[in-house]
Amino acid sequence: MTKNFICLLLPLFVISHTIRAAGEPDLVKYLYRSEKLSHFRFYWHNIFSGPNPTVVNIVPPLEHKNKTTWLFGKVDMIDDPLTETPEAGSRLLGRAQGLYAMASQEQIGMLMAMDFVFLTGKYNGSTLTILGRNPALEKVREMPVIGGSGLFRFARGYVEATTYSYDIKTGDAVVEYNVYVLQ
């Protein structure tokens, strides 16, 4: 019995040390680490106008007889700057890259699928992934953080989005994002 037990444990020991030696992360470290709640605030600039738009339409809205469908079916791809303050020239912290789709026929309700890609400081190269519903006309919208990469590996949490400014003529918007993430 003891001999069988040792024969079973020896390969597991060798495999676990081989995986770590090959540069794989120590998953035990992640499973038993203490979690820390972090809060970030930055401004998302969704720019349709000017010579360098950061959003492009990739699927136009469907034509409906009923004009109250709020652009249902429209899909836009984004590469929006994330800045420290609402001013366009303020310090760039990262980019919001992904897409959003008009997913509601009854209101301006979007499905947001985007990564916040951090470009400065401690989190440079790390990402947070957002996937959720954004009812744009509500004062504060909450969407889940479903994961991340780099220092945000195994992250979870939520974001609160609040419109800071919106230009009805151009469609340009600045949205304040407050991000709460366990890492």
Topology:
Elements: H1 2-21, H2 27-31, E1 37-46, E2 55-59, E3 75-83, E4 92-102, E5 109-118, E6 127-135, E7 140-149, E8 156-166, E9 173-182
Mean of the pLDDT scores? 87
Give the helix/strand class.
mainly beta
* Biggest sheet overview: 8 strands, antiparallel, barrel
Strand order of the largest sheet: 1-3-4-5-6-7-8-9
Count of helix runs? 2
**Helix and strand succession?**
HHEEEEEEEEE
**Count of individual beta strands:** 9
Assign an overall shape: globular
Uncertain ranges: none
Which radius of gyration do the C-alpha atoms yield?
22 Å
Proportion in β-strands: over 45%
Instruction: Note the gap between the termini.
Output: 43 Å
Brief summary:
The chain has 183 residues and is mainly β. The protein is 14% helix and 46% strand. It has an 8-stranded antiparallel barrel with strand order 1-3-4-5-6-7-8-9.
What does this entry look like structurally?
The chain is mainly β. The protein is built from 2 helices and 9 strands; from the N terminus they run ααβββββββββ. It has helices at residues 2-21, 27-31, and strands at 37-46, 55-59, 75-83, 92-102, 109-118, 127-135, 140-149, 156-166, 173-182. It has an 8-stranded antiparallel beta barrel. A hairpin with a 6-residue loop joins β7 (140-149) and β8.
Describe the structure using short key phrases.
eight-stranded antiparallel barrel; 183 residues; single chain
